[in-house]
Amino acid sequence: MKLREIRDSLQADVLWGEDLLENEVSYAFGADLMSDVLAFVKTGTILLTGLINSQVIRTAEMADVTAILFVRGKVPDGDIIDLARENSIAILTTKNTLFTTSGILYSCGLRGIEDDKI
Amino acid sequence: MGNIAYDFQIEKDDFERAGEASSKIKKILRQLGIDSGIIRRVAIAAYEVEINLVIHSLGGTISISIDPKSIMIIAKDIGPGIENVELAMKEGYSTASDKIREMGFGAGMGLPNMKKCADSFYIESIIGKGTIITMKMMLKDGE
């Protein structure tokens, strides 16, 4: 699924990465626990989270996460967006909750990570 | 490719900079043209150990050395040491504070995840002295 389709289906705002909207993701993973993101995420994933500290971007950087979608209307500080820019990770935000976001994306055909792959 | 080695100093409770060393390690490996799957495993293991040093240790160093056959990460801290290493290695076991959990860590996945990412994993801890974690990732075909 293209990031553009994800943005459109959630009416999300792109905080950084307008140029990356044609990029595809194969999976979504929703968590506020970065330890679990590091343990379970595959490449080609969009991370859905309500956590907005710099460790979210660091975690995404290490795990080769394609994009981060902040839920519940969360918007990180500018320096956190800068860190995402340095690492070419697209950043979006939606007013939907994690559950609603997941439901919308699932109904659009996006799937979760089912198996432990590391 | 000859042998390459770097050391990174990690400060206790420095959450602001936590992840910088792992980020640098990832960039170095990318410049060396190492396989992206291996880079990812090294980066995740390095980041987990870096976060552990910031959260749990009194400070320490992460050393990385790269030779044509393998990548070695050695994390060494100056204490306080892990009381029960066997317990610490169990998924879900953590001694992290609520503050750490609010930051998204302390789920008890760090050490097990490092072990999963590495081809070999060795941990030695002495109370009052410190902990040494040694991880090795093999490079395919002498990359």
Give the % helix of chain B.
25-40%
Q: Assign the CATH class of chain B.
A: Alpha Beta
SS-based class of chain B: alpha+beta
Q: Using DSSP, what is the number of strands of chain B?
A: 5
Q: Which stretches of chain A of 5+ consecutive residues score pLDDT under 50?
A: none
Mind summarizing the main beta sheet of chain B?
5 strands, antiparallel
Portion of residues in beta strands of chain A equals 15-25%
How would you classify the quaternary structure?
A: heterodimer
**CATH superfamily descriptor of chain A:** HprK N-terminal domain-like
The end-to-end distance of chain A, rounded to whole angstroms, is 23 Å
The secondary structure category of chain A is: alpha/beta
* Annotated CATH architecture of chain B: 2-Layer Sandwich
- How many beta-strand segments of chain A? 6
**Structural domain count of chain B:** 1
| CATH structural class of chain A | Alpha Beta
Please write the string of helix (H) and strand (E) elements of chain B: EHHEEHHHEE
Overall average pLDDT of chain B:
94
Mean pLDDT of chain A: 95
CATH topology of chain B: Heat Shock Protein 90
Q: In which range does the helix fraction of chain A lie?
A: 25-40%
What does this structure look like?
The complex is a heterodimer of chains A (118) and B (143). By secondary structure, chain A is of the alpha/beta class. Chain A has 5 helices and 6 strands. Chain A has helices spanning 3-10, 34-40, 54-62, 78-86, 98-107; strands at 13-16, 27-30, 45-49, 67-70, 90-93, 111-112. A 6-stranded mixed beta sheet of chain A has the order 1-5-4-3-2-6. In chain A, helix 4 (78-86) links the parallel strand 4 and strand 5 (90-93). In chain A, helix 2 (34-40) packs parallel to helix 3. The model of chain A has no long low-confidence stretch (mean pLDDT 95). Helices cover 35% and strands 27% of the residues of chain B. In chain B, strands 1-2-3-5-4 form a 5-stranded antiparallel beta sheet, with helices on one face. Chain B has one domain (4-142): 2-Layer Sandwich (Heat Shock Protein 90). By secondary structure, chain B is α+β, with helices and mostly antiparallel strands. Chain B is globular and about 40 Å long. In chain B, helix 1 (20-31) packs antiparallel against helix 2 (36-56). In chain B, strand 2 (60-66) and strand 3 (70-77) form a beta hairpin. Chain B is built from 5 helices and 5 strands, in the order βααββαααββ. Chain B has helices spanning 20-31, 36-56, 85-88, 98-102, 110-117, and strands spanning 4-10, 60-66, 70-77, 120-126, 130-138. The chains are: A alpha/beta (118), B alpha+beta (143).
